[in-house]
Design a protein that fits this description.
heterodimer, A: 380 residues, alpha/beta, nine-stranded mixed sheet, two-stranded antiparallel sheet, 11 strands, 34% helix, B: 137 residues, mainly beta, three-stranded antiparallel sheet, 36% strand
Chain lengths: 380, 137
Amino acid sequence: MRRNQVAVVGAAETTELGVIPNMSQIQLHADAALNAIADAGLKLSDIDGFATAVETPQQVCHYLGITPTWVDGTSVGGCSFMLHVRHAAAAIETGLCNTVLITHAESGKSMIGKQLRATPPDSLNGQFEAPFGVYGPPSMFPIPVLRYMKTYGITHEQLAMVAVVQREWAAKNPRATMKEPITVADVLNSRMIAYPFRLLQCCLVTDGGGALILTSADRAKDFPQKPVYILGTGESVETPLVSQMETFSSSRAFKVAGPLAFKEAGITHGDVDHLMIYDAFAHLPLFGLGDLGFMPHEETGKFIADGNTRPGAKLPLNTNGGGLSYMHSGMYGMYALQESVRQMRGIAPAQVPNARISVCHGVGGMFAASGTIIFTNERQ
Amino acid sequence: MAEAARARPKPTPETQHFWDGTQAGELRLQRCDACAHVYFPPRPFCPSCASRKVSVFKASGMGRLYSYVINHRPAAPGFTPPYSIAVVELDEGPRMMSNIVDCPQTPEALELDMRLEVKFEKLDDKITLPLFRPARG
């Protein structure tokens, strides 16, 4: 895909985030979509391309009253929206549609109008993982952590610092769910969830949603908001079974998606001003820093523990507070994308001064899928 | 109120040999006749070279502890926390999820790379699960 041919011209989250007991999941989609439409200065009838995950495109399009000529229902977990951005950019560039709306919403906390995810007993997950007591992401996502720690010499304190530093970012964000400062001791003394991870190393469970609007870069200059261009993209999948990953020292999906996006963008790691790495759990930023090639995996824990990703430091990471402290409705990728767009527009609550390039890396399932989007606010 | 039961696997035509094996006290894997790749979970073709000529064989039942969590909450139906959810690397190469039993469910007792052996646990008349315990001797 060619660089900077497509731009984000509308971006918004739901009016409220956190606990939203007065809205069903489909209405959260609509709330985010209407906010994004207003942000872009458009009407719903201007939308001719639509993408969403978990809910089907027909559910949300009907609810909103949209008649699209291009739809994408890619649903690979929390990074689905990174894949939607990639697919939408390709669709716009090839002329399949002009203006794409991507929505995410989840009533993750209040569970209103949300279908439960079931594991059929005759699926591979149902036969070869469920009988051994996995029960939701906290029991599955951290399974690789101990092997990763042993392979690279990562410590419990370093993994606790991931949560500490992200809380520092969250403290600057009025919309963050958790803003009180925490220490390494607070993390290591919080309630055990699935050893080696404790409560403060696991993402929040909240309600919310977000929506993006994309169009061609040529049209983008006529919109009210500062355009945010798509500089590079990547995607991949590995396995729905965490036990069957090629290795626990790395994520194959990360290692495919991340470098693909860097290559397409034509940038080096030193060009990155701002970084989002989907942090459903505290080990994900370490996997991301290593697999995206920022540094060898051995150095990732020390890099974060030494404060290199905190406010004011050289590599601002998860500047909204992340899934650990900002919000996590179940599929956090949309919120990572929203923060990258805010940073590129220059309007983030914890704005990185003069940021020009933002890398936004997502994970789906338990390392099952991955998508990477690189944004810039400079067309050339 | 009856206690909720552990999730029970339901075999498919492609996996039936594996579940027949555990019932017979055998841990069965598959090997590609063309490229000798040993793989899991079961499927009637080689995921490495796509050959449909594959054979089922009895594995040693020995392996090492590759990684794990000790789950505290939320606990799955049929489990009493804390309990280990482990990934075992079999001597033949493939890895599989299981539980480590017959030892304390603590980080001290569950040492990465410790030797393990399969222990079959009968769930009911049709399903026996392959669990693992510290290897003896």
